[in-house]
Specification:
- The protein is built from 14 helices and eight strands.
- The chain has 377 residues and is an alpha+beta fold.
- It has two domains: 2-126 and 167-190, Structural Genomics Hypothetical 15.5 Kd Protein In mrcA-pckA Intergenic Region, Chain A (Roll); 243-371, no CATH class.
- A hairpin with a 2-residue loop joins strand 3 and strand 4 (54-57).
- Helix 11 runs antiparallel to helix 12, helix 11 runs parallel beside helix 13 and helix 12 runs parallel beside helix 14.
- The longest helix is centred in the C-terminal third of the chain and has 22 residues, at 290-311.
- The radius of gyration is 25 Å and the shape is globular.
- Residues 2-172 form the Plasmid pRiA4b Orf3-like domain.
- This is Plasmid pRiA4b Orf3-like domain-containing protein.
- InterPro entries: DUF6155, MM3350-like_sf, Plasmid_pRiA4b_Orf3-like.
């Protein structure tokens, strides 16, 4: 049995739509991944499904006590449990900043089809660009690109992804991507595993033994292959080989990643705090540089303070995140027995507290209390 659905991106004309099918026993998180491939999104942002007054997404345990609604876990909720009648309509929301609203309709339950693999059946028009600014930003971008002498045209041409065509859609290309991810997009119970074989894992001892057996040319080839395997591996090797120069370059790159969540080059900051915190964590893992990681955390708090000074009070969740990050910074400063971190960041740490005078939610008082705990004061 498969579900055949139609999905439409709301508020855009002519319609951007797809028809696709999938096994009803997938989780909503798997359905999210299917929709990402079917529509042409790049899975950069958070999402939610709204089904019969229920919200299904990825709850954040950090802020669970602050949620004023129940969010069911998309990794655990099965689609068929909540959607089981033809003509059922529900909503898929992608990117809470751009707020892409999709209407999904279950148009047919096909009991004659047994293949559980998802499949795209039809569709029209290309998916909008990520981070374009929602429906208005997308329509504005298209208007600019279609106007030869528009003052913003060169900017957008340099910004859109290479080969972007708002009218292009290919079922074949989508199905190639769905096939590539097939095992991740069908119910786990239906994934065919090799019988009697245990998962293969490369242990440190096995890696060490293998490396000792390689000659210099083979080692060089292995490192080259690792370099080309992923962007993260490329960055990791750059740090190991180029040292401080690479760390400094990566710091500038990740600093921009943090800053753009508050003050992007275009439009209004989306405050995707998890994205900014993930960038900090990723930088720390790639470089192992605690000093620069601390500065990224401070950049996070400084931008948060500047954001609320620019746009007014935000909410308790926002301020809790800022205070939590500031507490991490103070802990790291206190653990430095040389006091070098305190000497370097003293003025900025104090400035953060001073600038928050008058901000609500107890924000200033919480920061001031943390600042008073610095052992060097």
């Amino acid at each position: 049995m498969v579900y055949r659905c139609r999905i439409e991106l709301n508020e855009i004309a002519p319609k951007i739509w797809r028809e696709f099918q999938f096994h009803p026993d997938v989780t909503f998180h798997q359905l999210h991944k299917i929709i990402q491939s079917v529509m042409g999104w790049e899975n950069y942002h958070l999402y939610e499904f709204h089904v019969k007054e229920k919200v299904i997404g990825l709850p954040d345990p950090t802020f669970a006590d602050m949620e004023d609604r129940e969010v069911l876990n998309a990794r655990r909720e099965i689609v068929q449990k909540h959607v089981h009648e033809e003509n059922t309509v529900f909503t898929y929301v992608y990117d809470f900043g751009d707020d892409w609203q999709h209407t999904v309709t279950l148009i047919k339950i096909d009991a004659s089809t047994s293949d559980p693999a998802p499949l795209c059946l039809d569709g029209a028009r290309g998916c909008p660009q990520e981070d374009v600014g929602g429906v208005w930003g997308h329509q504005h971008m298209l208007e600019v690109l279609l106007t030869p002498n528009h003052p913003e045209r060169d900017h957008f041409i340099g910004w859109v992804r290479e080969g972007y065509d708002p009218e292009h859609f290919s079922c074949e290309e989508v199905n190639q991507e769905l096939e590539r991810q097939k095992d991740k997009l069908i119910p786990k119970s239906l994934v065919k595993r090799p019988v009697g074989k245990k998962p293969v894992k490369l242990t440190k001892s096995a890696l060490n033994k293998h490396l000792k057996q390689l000659n210099s040319d083979q080692l060089i080839d292995l490192v080259k292959a690792c370099h080309g395997a992923s962007k993260d591996m490329e960055k990791f090797l750059a740090v190991r080989i180029l040292g401080d120069e690479a760390v400094e370059s990566l710091f500038q790159e990740y600093c921009k990643k943090v800053e753009k969540e508050f003050f992007p080059e275009r439009g209004f900051g989306k405050l995707r705090l998890q994205e900014a915190k993930h960038a900090i964590s990723e930088f720390e893992k790639l470089t192992g540089n605690a000093r620069y990681a601390l500065e990224l955390k401070l950049v996070y708090v400084e931008n948060g303070v500047d954001f609320t000074l620019s746009y007014g009070d935000i909410d308790e969740r926002f301020y809790y995140s800022m205070v939590s990050m500031y507490a991490d910074i103070i802990d790291q400063v206190n653990e430095d027995k040389t006091a070098e971190l305190f000497d370097e960041f003293e003025e900025r740490l104090e400035a953060v507290v001073s600038k928050t005078e008058g901000i609500g939610w107890g924000f200033h008082d919480n920061l001031a209390n943390l600042h008073a705990q610095i052992r060097w004061i």
